[in-house]
């Protein structure tokens, strides 16, 4: 995981949110957009007004080391930033393929009409994606890992109840508890069962600590053994 433990600049987040809204682009992760946008502006443009030259799109095409989906994403964010400063609407993100851990290329074609659309690989791994842009909701994972993600969400719901905080704001505290950057604090990034068990134990220990100190909400101790 990255050691960059910070939120992208508020001005950049606002810029991208406004551009998406004006372009009719919804159901996307603006925070992740801003993480990529900050890297682009620092590499190719200006951090004074979070702008990029129009040529940045061409430069990205010549960058080596990008996977296909990374190039598409970076180019898409660059266009959003350029379009914002030019006062024009942006097109939606193009369809792209992702690479499964097994090495196969996976597309989201044919999934758009599903209630919970997913990237599905023939090896059995899969992951959902944002309907607004097709960006994966985390990493491809097998059935066991996906089941454990559900278990983690159950423990997290209980933890937020003890913290007396809503689930959205709870991720800030959870990131600090786990020692990971906020933008990478997401259960859909967990692909190993052992890591899922470790995270669950950390959350349950925090619930137990809060209850022992009398700071949380009572009546959930019987639920602490979330046996898969």
Task: Provide a quick synopsis of the model.
Keywords: Metal-binding, Zinc, Zinc-finger. The protein has 228 residues and is mainly alpha-helical.
Helix and strand arrangement:
Blueprint: H1 10-22, H2 30-44, H3 56-62, H4 68-86, E1 98-99, E2 105-106, E3 118-120, E4 126-128, H5 143-163, H6 167-178, H7 193-212
Antiparallel strand pairs: 1-2, 3-4
Helix pairs in contact: 1-2, 1-4, 2-4, 3-4, 5-7
What does this structure look like?
With 228 residues, the chain is mainly alpha-helical. The strands form 2 sheets. The protein has a two-stranded antiparallel sheet. Helix 1 packs across helix 4 and helix 2 packs across helix 4. The chain starts with 9 loop residues before the first helix and ends in a 16-residue tail after the last helix. InterPro entries: DUF3268. This is DUF3268 family zinc-finger domain-containing protein.
Separate helix tally:
7
Distance between the termini: 26 Å
The arrangement of helices and strands along the chain is HHHHEEEEHHH
Assembly type of the chains comes to single chain
Low-confidence spans: 1-5, 219-227
The biggest sheet, with number of strands, parallel, antiparallel or mixed sense and barrel status, is: 2 strands, antiparallel
Estimate the global geometry from the Cα principal axes: globular
| Averaged pLDDT | 89
Total strand segments: 4
Domain tally: 3
What structural class is derived from the secondary structure elements? mainly alpha
Strand content: under 5%
Please estimate the helix content: 40-55%
The largest beta-sheet arranges its strands as: 1-2
Any idea what the radius of gyration is? 20 Å
